[in-house]
């Protein structure tokens, strides 16, 4: 097995652990809070200045694709980032702290 | 790199393919059973998860419903056909379309905190107009049916390319499997299985793509050099062919696909209000790497000099063909198949769940408000089965989807700007909304027929915008958006 493949397997495993830990936490939170009869309306914790974040995401995506045409090493950037997607999804469960009824 | 070097991996039997399809469904069925017993008490829970979906499940479920089986394969196919410019035009508008929901979702969630569907918004926004809300309802139903159809088709393409499975068997089995587990838990099942699917679409995809390059002597460098030697423009994102060929119209089509889709609006009202904007922002940004990663397989296809004929005539199959013919270990081929199945299952269960919310709120409760909760609950669940069965019949009949695709395209594109204006511009009125949709279809679709998709799309968007703005400026009063939170068309909580 190549070093590159080993690196990706390790990173994939790390992202998976974070994802599973987050998922389990999410399920527990859902079971604990799902029956709360109160209608939540407070959106004060939500993202407000989002346009610049959207712009950065769009430019970063375009740049990632463009770089794959500049140097072959950047072909692996997509697979690397997609592991980041799983990790960030797992992290999202820890960032979010639902109110308990 | 030579196409003749690619041969079908041994061991890809029909039994293995069927076991993967059924096995995934059984795992989700067990999860759905748990969800049903712990989280679902009534129709309100079934279609809106008591508005308790958090950031993690929100992000995971939005990514998974947006990652269609076809999108997984199309990212490879568009790179294969147009080079990196094809991937650029396929990917960039895709993620943006989800993030474009952020401002609209935040506005509607704040102004109508107890909402369920976008048709319900139209009903309240346009003074209980059944015409305006009916237009929106029909658009949503057509869109949902098309989502199910296309994903069924995508799955049948993959399963019949990788395994010796009859495409009709694959179609039928997909419907049975997805509807079986979706039936039990509704939206909770959709978001929880969808989030698992997001993992299945991401980590295994990365490993498979790296392994594919690892099967080639010299890896990415060899592929890069082969692509460059064939046609260096395939390594540029600035080629105009892809933009003119599909990119610009796709960009607007994708915007309509999110803004005019109950699958996403259902989540807007199901996610806790302090996470709505963040969910769509994260989902859009985190979606990007998925098609970028899988798009790299398109470069492998170019490097090998594959043709459409080599992969069975349809370039959508180029990704599955490479993965099943390059000599990967069986476990990685299975991982790739699971990527496609995950994309397919999550989109279909998300669409079915959205259909159930439309049936409950915009059909049963609007036209038969006296329906009891227990009866409504069963009708809501049955509607998912009916939608899936109709879609399966259409696919199995071998009927041409063209009419359905065109109708859905016309409705979604024509409703995009009127719907956005209805949300952000208080002077938008019923006449402008309905007139904009109808006139843009009546004038824009013939223009599309004669002058092509680009001019047709711009005509539909332009006409709908002019009619809505014109009627709004000529009309009387501005709508008081605060009325949205006061009006309560339906109440499903028990």
CATH hierarchy class name of chain B: Mainly Alpha
**On the 0-100 scale, what is the average pLDDT of chain B?**
89
Q: Radius of gyration of chain B, Cα only, in angstroms?
A: 23 Å
Poorly predicted runs of 5 or more residues of chain A: none
Strand content of chain B: under 5%
Gap between N and C termini of chain A: 51 Å
Q: Judging from the principal axes of the Cα atoms, what is the shape of chain A?
A: flat
Number of E strands of chain B? 0
Query: If classified by CATH, what would the architecture of chain B be?
Result: Up-down Bundle
Oligomeric state: heterodimer
Give the helix proportion of chain A (percent range).
Answer: 55-70%
Q: How many helical stretches of chain A?
A: 3
3D shape of chain B: globular
- Low-confidence parts of chain B: none
State the CATH superfamily name of chain B: Sodium/glucose cotransporter
Series of H and E elements of chain A: HHH
**What distance lies between the first and last C-alpha atoms of chain B, to the nearest angstrom?**
64 Å
Report the sheet-strand fraction of chain A.
under 5%
Summed up, the domain count of chain B is 1
What does this structure look like?
The complex is a heterodimer of chains A (101) and B (494). Chain A contains three helices and no strands. Chain A is mostly helical and 101 residues long. The radius of gyration of chain A is 18 Å and the shape is flat. In chain A, helix 1 (3-33) runs parallel beside helix 3. Chain A has one domain (3-37, 47-95). Chain A has helices spanning 3-33, 51-68, 77-95. With 494 residues, chain B is an all-alpha fold. Chain B has a single domain (3-414), classed as Sodium/glucose cotransporter (Up-down Bundle), CATH 1.20.1730. Chain B is 78% helix and 0% strand. Chain B has 21 helices and no strands. Chain B has helices spanning 14-39, 43-48, 55-66, 69-82, 84-99, 101-111, 118-125, 130-162, 167-214, 219-230, 240-259, 262-270, 276-287, 289-303, 318-325, 330-367, 373-396, 402-424, 430-451, 453-474, 483-486. In chain B, helix 6 packs antiparallel against helix 13 (276-287), helix 9 (167-214) packs across helix 17 (373-396) and helix 18 runs parallel beside helix 20. Chain B is globular. The chains are: A mainly alpha (101), B mainly alpha (494). At the A-B interface, helix 1, helix 2 and helix 3 of A face helix 3, helix 5, helix 6, helix 9 and helix 10 of B.
């Amino acid at each position: 097995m190549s070093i590159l493949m080993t690196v990706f397997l390790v990173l994939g495993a790390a992202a998976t652990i974070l994802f599973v830990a987050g998922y389990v936490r999410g399920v527990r939170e859902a079971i604990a809070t799902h029956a709360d009869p109160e209608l939540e309306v407070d959106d004060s914790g939500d993202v407000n200045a989002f346009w610049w974040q959207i712009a950065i995401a769009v430019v970063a995506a375009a740049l990632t694709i463009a770089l794959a045409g500049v140097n072959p090493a950047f072909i692996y950037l997509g697979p690397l980032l997609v592991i980041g997607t799983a990790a960030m999804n797992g992290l999202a469960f820890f960032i979010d702290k639902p109110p308990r009824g | 790199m030579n196409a003749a070097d690619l041969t079908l991996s041994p061991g890809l039997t029909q039994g293995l393919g069927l076991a993967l399809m059924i096995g995934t469904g059984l795992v989700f069925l067990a999860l759905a059973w748990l969800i049903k017993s712990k989280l679902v008490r009534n129709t309100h829970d079934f279609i809106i998860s008591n508005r308790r979906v958090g950031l993690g499940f929100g992000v995971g479920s939005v990514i998974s419903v947006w990652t269609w089986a076809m999108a997984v394969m199309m990212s490879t196919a568009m790179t294969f056909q147009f080079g990196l410019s094809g991937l650029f035009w396929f990917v960039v508008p895709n993620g943006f379309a989800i993030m474009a929901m952020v401002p609209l979702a935040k506005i509607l969630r704040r102004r109508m905190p107890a909402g369920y569907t976008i048709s319900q918004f139209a009903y309240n926004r346009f003074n209980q107009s059944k015409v305006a809300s009916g237009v929106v309802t029909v658009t949503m139903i057509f869109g949902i049916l098309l989502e199910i159809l296309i994903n069924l088709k995508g799955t049948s393409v993959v399963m019949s390319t990788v395994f010796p499975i009859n495409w009709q068997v694959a179609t039928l089995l997909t419907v049975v499997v997805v509807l079986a587990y979706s039936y039990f838990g509704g939206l909770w099942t959709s978001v929880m299985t969808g989030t698992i699917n997001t993992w299945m679409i991401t980590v295994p995809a990365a490993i498979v793509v790296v392994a594919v390059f690892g099967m080639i002597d010299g890896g990415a460098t060899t592929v890069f050099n082969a692509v460059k030697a064939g046609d260096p423009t395939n390594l540029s994102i600035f080629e105009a062919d892809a933009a003119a060929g599909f990119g610009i119209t796709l960009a607007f089509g994708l915007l309509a696909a999110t803004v005019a889709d109950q699958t996403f609006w259902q989540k807007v009202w199901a996610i806790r209000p302090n996470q709505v904007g963040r969910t769509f922002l994260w989902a859009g940004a985190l979606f990007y790497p998925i098609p970028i990663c899988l798009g790299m397989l398109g470069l492998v296809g170019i490097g090998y000099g594959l043709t459409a004929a080599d992969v069975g005539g349809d370039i959508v199959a180029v990704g599955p063909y490479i993965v099943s013919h390059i000599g990967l270990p069986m476990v990685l081929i299975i991982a790739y198949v699971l990527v496609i199945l995950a994309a397919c299952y999550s989109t279909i269960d998300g669409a079915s769940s959205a259909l159930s919310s439309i049936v409950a709120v915009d059909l049963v409760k609007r036209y038969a408000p006296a329906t009891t909760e227990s009866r409504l609950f069963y009708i809501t669940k049955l509607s998912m089965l009916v939608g899936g069965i109709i879609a399966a019949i259409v696919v199995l009949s071998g009927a041409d989807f063209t009419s359905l695709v065109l109708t859905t395209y016309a409705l979604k594109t024509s409703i995009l700007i009127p719907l956005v204006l209805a949300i952000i511009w208080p002077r938008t009125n019923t006449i402008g909304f309905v007139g904009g949709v109808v006139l843009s279809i009546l004038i824009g679709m013939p223009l599309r027929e004669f002058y092509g998709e680009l001019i047709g799309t711009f005509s539909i968007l332009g006409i709908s915008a002019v009619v809505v703005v014109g009627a709004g400026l000529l009309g009387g009063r501005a709508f008081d958006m605060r009325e949205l939170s006061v009006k309560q068309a339906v109440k499903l909580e028990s």
